[in-house]
Design a protein that fits this description.
two-stranded parallel ribbon, NAD+ binding, lyase, transmembrane helix, SDR family oxidoreductase, 7-stranded parallel β-sheet, UDP-glucuronate decarboxylase activity
Length: about 325
């Protein structure tokens, strides 16, 4: 049985990856310090003998007994609210954490895939963003702690590949959503759905003309799985190119939740990218991958998940 270590396993994407690798017949070693994740996301796997969980901060030395075939490094705060609350930890998990895991990959002769992000493109001046674009990041702005950690992460990963021959993969993930996002993580999908379900106004930041392109989690996991098993060592964008303005998106959520909530406008966070859409030519050509789930269907599934929360749980999210 092949063994995979997944860091950030109790988080949104990490927990779905655990499910996928278990389904594919892997032995899964899950690691997380629960700083932004929730153990409930993986509790259903605890009964399986091919699943283990380590509560560990990956910025500290990482040791795993025995052989290891693959590592997926997904530990990192991912929502702007989270990484602005814990900026130093964010920088550390992208830098020291990645260094530790690359060291482990080298020691175990394991292939490692690291979770990079569309944020490496910053507030992009090339649209849609292809992998050749170098990006436009304000290093000392508030989002710099995340963006630069991820840019460093890519650099050190390529260096381990070039200088140590470690088998590496880099996925640049564009806004992904679905069940198990944290209700109060501040990202726009749980924020709008939570507000609608609580009967609150939806908070649009700025004038709402900024765009994002939302990818359903199952499509994202499929892309990551294919990239891991491919031979391609350079970064690959995985996301859904269906672009929407945040204003239109808020209107979609109001319709979907069949509420008559109003939208209210709040200041745009500093350095909030004005446009974002993945160019997925590489993913199509190299991985034969493209997203299958449309936004309206994906949002319905996501809404069903959030409807499972009690009134008290919904009220707890008070950002
Ligand atoms: P998440 O916050 O739900 O999950 C991150 C997990 O990492 C959490 O469970 C958290 O407790 C854990 N973690 C953080 N620091 C840690 C540390 N030092 N040691 C051990 N565990 C630690 O976020 P997510 O959306 O699942 O994102 C997962 C990864 O994917 C991140 O690396 C993120 O940067 C990347 N990503 C996600 C998106 C997206 O749209 N979801 C987009 C781009 C990149
Ligand atoms: N956003 C918003 N209202 C909210 C939360 C987010 O208008 O309550 C906006 C945010 O300013 C950004 C977009 O929605 O332009 C996506 O934000 P998110 O935090 O989900 O992801 P990211 O900015 O990292 O793409």
């Amino acid at each position: 049985m092949q063994k995979v270590l997944i860091t950030g396993a109790a988080g949104f994407l990490g927990s779905h990856l655990c499910d996928r690798f278990i389904k594919e017949g892997f032995h899964v070693i899950a690691m997380d310090n629960l700083i932004t994740g929730d153990i409930k996301n993986i509790e259903h796997l605890f009964k399986l003998k091919q699943f283990e969980f380590y509560n560990h901060d990956v910025t500290k030395f990482v040791h795993v007994p025995g052989e290891l075939d693959y590592i997926l490094h997904f530990a990192s705060p991912a929502s702007p609210i989270d990484y602005l609350k814990i900026p130093i930890q964010t920088l550390k998990v992208g830098s020291l954490g990645t260094h530790n895991l690359l060291g482990l990959a080298k020691e175990k002769n394991a292939r490692i895939l690291i979770a990079s992000t569309s944020e490496v493109y910053g507030d992009p001046q090339v649209h849609p963003q292809n992998e050749e674009y170098y990006g436009n990041v304000n290093t000392i702005g508030p989002r710099g702690v995340y963006d630069e950690a991820k840019r460093f992460q890519e650099s050190i990963t390529m260096a381990y590949h070039t200088y140590h021959g470690v088998e590496t993969r880099i996925v640049r993930i564009f806004n992904t959503y679905g069940p198990r996002m944290r209700l109060n993580d501040g990202r726009v999908v749980p924020a709008f759905i939570g507000q609608a379900l609580r009967g609150e106004d939806l908070t649009i930041f700025g004038d709402g003309m900024q765009t994002r392109s939302f990818c359903y989690v199952d499509d994202q996991v499929e892309g990551i799985y294919k990239l891991l098993l491919s031979d391609y060592v350079y970064p690959v964008n995985i996301g859904n190119p269906d672009e929407v303005t945040i204003k239109e998106f808020a209107e979609e959520i109001v319709r979907l939740t069949e509420t008559d909530q109003k939208v209210i406008y709040k200041p745009l966070p500093v350095d909030d990218p004005l446009q974002r859409q993945p160019d997925i030519t590489k993913a199509k050509e190299i991985l034969n991958w493209e997203p299958k789930m449309g936004r309206s269907e994906g949002m319905k599934l996501t809404l069903e998940y959030f409807k499972g929360f009690s009134k008290e749980e919904l009220q707890k999210s008070d950002h």
